[in-house]
Design goal:
This protein has 370 residues and is mainly α. It has ten helices and four strands. It is rod-shaped, with a radius of gyration of 57 Å.
C-alpha cells in the first residue's frame, strides 16, 4: 500500500508564539489604593474620635467622683468631729445617712449608668475608713463620758465618807458584822477604781489618792467653820492625817493640813471658852455659886460644872475644853468677875454722885447722919 508522505515529519517543531497583550499591563492596586486609603483614614479618624470621647468621658467621671469624694469626706469629718454619741452602732447609723444622701445625689446626675457606677464605687470606698473613725470617736466619747461620771461618783463617795466619818455612822458588812460606814464606803470606792481601770476608763484616782481625797474632805469640813466644829472632831482629823502615807499627801500638803487643823482648833477652843463664859455670867449666879463653878473648872477630871438650886439646875459643859486650858478659863472668869464688880461699883458711885448734884449742904449733912 502506498504510503502517504507526511511533510515535516522528523523536522523540528515549529516555534509557537505566546498569545498576549501587545502593551504593558496596568497594576490593579493603582486603581484600588485611593479607596483603601480613604477607608483607612476614615477608620483612623473614627478611632481617634472614639478615643477622645472615651477620654472625655473618663475625665468627666473622675472630676465628678473627686467632687463627691471631697464633699462627702468633709461632711463625714464634720460629723465625726462634732460627734457626741457614745454608742458605736448609733454613730455608724448617722454616718450611713450621710453616705446614702450622696449616693442618692449621684444616682440623679446626668451621667451614663457606667459613669454613675464608677462615681458611686469611689465614694463608697472613701466611706469605708470613715466608719472605723466614727466608731472610734463614739467609743472615745463613751470612755470620756463614763470616766467623767465615774470620777464624779468617786469624789461624791469621798464626801459621803467624810460625813459618815464625822457622824461616826455604822453599818453592817456582807457577813453581818458591824463596821464603820466610812470604811465600807472606802472599800466600795476601791472596787469602782479597779473596775474602771479594767474597762479602760480614765480614772483620776488610785486607792491612795482616793483616801487622800477623803482626808482632804475631812480636813476641809472641820476647818471651814472652826467655830461650829467639835474640838474632839478636829483632834480626830489630826489622828487620821497622822495615819496618811507618803503617797497620799505630799510634805507640803501635810504641813498645810497640820497648820490648818491647829488654827481651827485654837478658834474652836476660843469659841467654846467664850460660850462657857457667857453662860456663866448670864446665869445670874451668886458669889458662892460663881466660886463653885470656878473651883469645878480647875478640876481636870470634871467634864462639866454643876450648880443646883431648889428649883433650878445649871450645867456648864466643859468636856470639849482641854484640861490644861480649864484653869486658864477659871482665872479668866475670876478676872472678868472682879472687873465687872469694879465697873458696877463705879457705876453706882457715878449714879449716886449725879443724884446728889444740886442738893444743899444741909441735905447732904442730914443724909450723911442718916
Amino acid at each position: 500500500m502506498p504510503r502517504i508522505p507526511v511533510y515535516a515529519q522528523g523536522a523540528p517543531s515549529a516555534v509557537k508564539l505566546e498569545a498576549g497583550q501587545l502593551s504593558r499591563r496596568a497594576d490593579v492596586g493603582a486603581f484600588t489604593a485611593p479607596g483603601k486609603a480613604a477607608a483607612g483614614l476614615a477608620k483612623t479618624v473614627g478611632d481617634i474620635a472614639f478615643q477622645f470621647g472615651q477620654a472625655e468621658k473618663q475625665l468627666q467621671t473622675d472630676r465628678t467622683a473627686t467632687e463627691y469624694e471631697n464633699l462627702s469626706r468633709q461632711e463625714a469629718d464634720d460629723y465625726r468631729i462634732g460627734l457626741t454619741e457614745t454608742d458605736t452602732a448609733t454613730a455608724a447609723e448617722g454616718l450611713k445617712k450621710i453616705e446614702d444622701k450622696y449616693i442618692n445625689k449621684i444616682s440623679g446626675l446626668n451621667l451614663t449608668r457606667s459613669q454613675k457606677q464608677a462615681v458611686e464605687k469611689r465614694v463608697r470606698q472613701k466611706f469605708v475608713p470613715q466608719y472605723t473613725n466614727v466608731k472610734q470617736a463614739a467609743f472615745a466619747n463613751h470612755i470620756r463620758v463614763t470616766s467623767a461620771a465615774e470620777n464624779e461618783s468617786l469624789k461624791s463617795l469621798a464626801t459621803e465618807m467624810a460625813f459618815a466619818w464625822a457622824d461616826e455612822e455604822m453599818t453592817f458588812d456582807e457577813f453581818g458584822d458591824e463596821t464603820e460606814l466610812h470604811t465600807a464606803l472606802y472599800e466600795q470606792g476601791i472596787k469602782k477604781i479597779e473596775d474602771g481601770m479594767t474597762k479602760g476608763l480614765s480614772i483620776n484616782y488610785t486607792p491612795s489618792s482616793f483616801r487622800a481625797e477623803f482626808l482632804k474632805q475631812v480636813i476641809a469640813g472641820v476647818t471651814a467653820d472652826p467655830t461650829g466644829s467639835s474640838i474632839s472632831l478636829i483632834d480626830h482629823a489630826r489622828e487620821e492625817l497622822n495615819k496618811a502615807k507618803g503617797d497620799e499627801f505630799t510634805v507640803a500638803e501635810t504641813a498645810k493640813a497640820i497648820n490648818d487643823l491647829a488654827v481651827a482648833k485654837d478658834l474652836a477652843i476660843a469659841t467654846k471658852v467664850e460660850t462657857i463664859s457667857g453662860q456663866v455670867f448670864e446665869a445670874g449666879l451668886s458669889e458662892d455659886e460663881f466660886d463653885s463653878v470656878i473651883s469645878q473648872l480647875r478640876n481636870p477630871d470634871n467634864l462639866s460644872a454643876l450648880v443646883e438650886r431648889e428649883e433650878t439646875k445649871f450645867t456648864f459643859d466643859i468636856s470639849e475644853i482641854p484640861s490644861d486650858i480649864r484653869a486658864t478659863v477659871a482665872n479668866s472668869l475670876s478676872i472678868k468677875r472682879d472687873i465687872a464688880s469694879s465697873e458696877e461699883q463705879t457705876e453706882l458711885l457715878e449714879s449716886a454722885t449725879l443724884g446728889l448734884q444740886g442738893k444743899s449742904l444741909g441735905y447732904l449733912q442730914s443724909a450723911k447722919q442718916e
